[in-house]
Amino acid sequence: GTLGSHRERDLLEEIYAVDFVNVPTAKCKLFYEHVPIVCKSAADWTDTIIESAKRLTETDGRSVLIICETLNEVAELYKVFGGKNATNVRTYTREYEEFDTGELSPGQIIIATNLAGRGTDIKLTQKLKGAGGVHVCLTYLPSNIRVEQQAFGRAARCGDRGSGQLIVLDQKEILNIMLLKRQR
């Protein structure tokens, strides 16, 4: 798993007198991160997420995992997508929820919280792999790089291709998203 920032490693090393080893993955990561989008209003944020997911699923034949910060955001996006009338959209909000871990096919949209999405093994059909795999849309800027890496790590697993993008709402604490990402 991910060990976090250098400060976190230093703290663990100081307290427990342990060493750290970086073990490379068995297969090369075929992940492409799109340029982050910072939206000025909640309506623009919602529209941008919806448009991105629809373009990727309908035009590109991909599937999209939308990761939200809160349960309310999951519910709101699900409602905007059409709720129960949208047969290609499902939610996953709790670790204990039943989640169909069958193969994910092109055109599917999963809206989840970060906690619910962790540890869920999403298998892809050959058709989805050929279309470019899963695209992860992270709808908030996590407080640390480890959470962001875990979220984007849902795509491009086991040597498959995948992509991701931050689509966030402009907030006072996010003055310059690119600067923050560079500092990480």
UniProtKB/TrEMBL annotation:
<keyword id="KW-0811">Translocation</keyword>
<feature type="domain" description="Helicase C-terminal">
    <location>
        <begin position="48"/>
        <end position="184"/>
    </location>
</feature>
<keyword id="KW-0813">Transport</keyword>
<keyword id="KW-0963">Cytoplasm</keyword>
<dbReference type="InterPro" id="IPR027417">
    <property type="entry name" value="P-loop_NTPase"/>
</dbReference>
<dbReference type="GO" id="GO:0006886">
    <property type="term" value="P:intracellular protein transport"/>
</dbReference>
<dbReference type="InterPro" id="IPR001650">
    <property type="entry name" value="Helicase_C-like"/>
</dbReference>
<dbReference type="GO" id="GO:0005524">
    <property type="term" value="F:ATP binding"/>
</dbReference>
<dbReference type="InterPro" id="IPR014018">
    <property type="entry name" value="SecA_motor_DEAD"/>
</dbReference>
<keyword id="KW-0653">Protein transport</keyword>
<feature type="domain" description="SecA family profile">
    <location>
        <begin position="1"/>
        <end position="184"/>
    </location>
</feature>
<protein>
    <submittedName>
        <fullName>Protein translocase subunit SecA</fullName>
    </submittedName>
</protein>
<dbReference type="GO" id="GO:0006605">
    <property type="term" value="P:protein targeting"/>
</dbReference>
<dbReference type="InterPro" id="IPR000185">
    <property type="entry name" value="SecA"/>
</dbReference>
